[in-house]
Amino acid sequence: MKKRLRHHARRVRLVIYAETLFDAREHLFTFLGAFTGLAAIGLLSRYLFGPQDTLLLVGSFGASAVLIYGAINSPLAQPRNLLGGHVLSAFIGVTVYKLVGQELWLAAALAVSLSIVAMQITKTLHPPGGATALIANVGSAQIKALGYGYVLMPVLAGVVILLLVALVFNNISPTRQYPLNRHWYKIWRRYARQNPPGV
């Protein structure tokens, strides 16, 4: 019995040790990617709208940065999820605001819940997408005034910047690979071949 307990204790120590290893190179690329992605969006915002405005820095981009720079192997961090989740949720958020925006509690709840279901149906689940939908309803007057423009700028423009930076910084190191599926962009071509228009 003692021998068995010692064996289990060794195994637990090994797991704890492996889980707490500090990989300086991994953390460096995470930092550089997140910093560069968000800084690029911030600088673009400053260039387009002036130093006092952060219109392009949507709060949900911070959560996306955690996923696409810090948890790059997560299915929720893949390009399809990043792009589809944000854009779909932004569109739903704006639509809900236009329909029931006068009842903020209802608009907020509807926007997030409909976005989650839409992301599940389209296989683009990206948790920060829920925040993107919520921001369309509870964000500043400036965000709300954008209407459907919110979908293109700041949301689509911001996620494209985050994705381009992720494709660079997550592939510099030989120990990192992003996205998991190297041919993710071909999915759309294959779909178009299988479903030609007018058929």
Write the layout of secondary structure elements.
Layout: H1 2-19, H2 24-49, H3 60-70, H4 79-100, H5 104-121, H6 128-138, H7 141-145, H8 149-169, H9 186-194
Helix pairs in contact: 2-3, 2-8, 3-6, 3-8, 4-5, 4-6, 4-8, 5-6
Describe the structure.
- The structure is a single chain.
- The chain has 199 residues and is mainly α.
- The chain has one domain.
- Helix content is 71%, strand content 0%.
- It is built from 9 helices and no strands.
- Helix 2 packs antiparallel against helix 3 (60-70), helix 3 packs parallel to helix 8 (149-169) and helix 4 (79-100) packs antiparallel against helix 8.
- The radius of gyration is 20 Å and the shape is globular.
- The model has no long low-confidence stretch (mean pLDDT 87).
Q: What general outline do the C-alpha atoms trace?
A: globular
Q: Which runs of at least 5 residues are low in confidence (pLDDT < 50)?
A: none
Tell me what portion of residues adopts beta-strand conformation. Answer: under 5%
Count of separate DSSP helical elements: 9
